[in-house]
Structure to design on (213 residues):
C-alpha cells in the first residue's frame, strides 16, 4: 500500500518536518518571510535539478503501453533529449519567477544563516527521494513523459500559495504558508512512485492528457 510506504519514507518526514517548522518559525518571527520566498524558490530548483539527474540515469523506459526498451543507443538519445527539453522548459519558468521574486520590495533582509540551514535540509530530502526513485526503477520501466510532468505537479500548487498574497496585496501570510506546506506534502505523496508503478504512471499520463500539458 502506498500509505504504508509513505510512513516509512525518510524524505516524506524530512519534508513534513521542514514545512511544519518553517510555519511555526514564521509565526514566531514574521520578518523571515523574505527568506522563505527565496528558500522555496531554491527548493523548487532542487526538485528540477534532481529530476534532470533522474531522467539522465534511467535504465529502462516505456516505449509502448506493455513494452519497455533498455537498448543503450535509443535510451541515451531519449533521456538526453528529454533532459535538455525539461531543463529549458523548467529553467525558463524559474527564470521568470526569479525576476518576479527579485522585483518584490522586501520589508526585511534575508537571514542567510537560516537560509543555508534549511536549504541543506531540503537537499537531504531530495537525495533520499532520488535514491528511492533509483531503487524503484530497478523493478520497472520508467515513463519519460510522466517524469517530465511530475515536477510541475509538485511546484505549481505550492508556488500559487506564495504568489497569491503578492498579487492580492495580502499582509497576513501565515495562512498561505500553511496552505503551501499542505500542498507540498500532498503533492509529494501523489507524485511518489509506488510499487504498482504501471498503474501510477497510467494515472499521471491520463491527468497530463486532461490538462493538455
Amino acid at each position: 500500500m502506498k500509505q504504508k510506504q509513505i510512513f516509512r519514507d525518510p524524505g516524506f518526514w524530512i519534508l513534513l518536518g521542514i514545512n511544519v517548522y518553517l510555519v511555526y518559525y514564521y509565526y514566531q518571527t514574521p520578518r523571515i518571510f523574505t527568506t522563505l520566498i527565496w528558500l522555496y524558490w531554491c527548493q523548487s530548483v532542487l526538485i528540477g535539478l534532481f529530476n534532470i539527474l533522474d531522467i539522465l540515469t534511467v535504465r529502462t523506459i516505456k516505449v509502448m503501453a506493455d513494452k519497455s526498451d533498455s537498448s543503450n543507443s535509443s535510451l541515451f538519445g531519449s533521456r538526453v533529449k528529454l533532459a535538455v527539453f525539461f531543463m529549458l522548459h523548467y529553467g525558463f519558468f524559474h527564470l521568470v519567477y526569479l525576476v518576479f521574486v527579485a522585483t518584490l520590495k522586501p520589508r526585511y533582509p534575508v537571514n542567510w544563516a537560516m537560509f543555508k540551514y534549511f536549504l541543506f535540509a531540503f537537499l537531504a530530502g531530495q537525495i533520499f527521494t532520488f535514491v528511492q526513485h533509483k531503487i524503484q526503477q530497478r523493478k520497472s520501466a520508467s515513463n519519460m513523459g510522466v517524469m517530465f510532468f511530475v515536477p510541475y505537479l509538485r511546484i505549481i500548487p505550492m508556488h500559487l500559495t506564495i504568489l497569491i498574497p503578492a498579487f492580492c496585496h495580502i499582509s497576513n501570510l501565515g495562512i498561505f504558508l500553511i496552505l503551501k506546506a499542505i500542498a507540498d506534502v500532498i503533492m509529494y505523496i501523489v507524485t511518489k512512485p509506488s510499487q504498482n508503478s504501471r498503474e501510477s504512471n497510467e494515472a499521471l499520463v491520463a491527468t497530463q492528457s486532461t490538462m493538455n500539458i
Summary: The first strand starts at residue 61 and ends at 62.
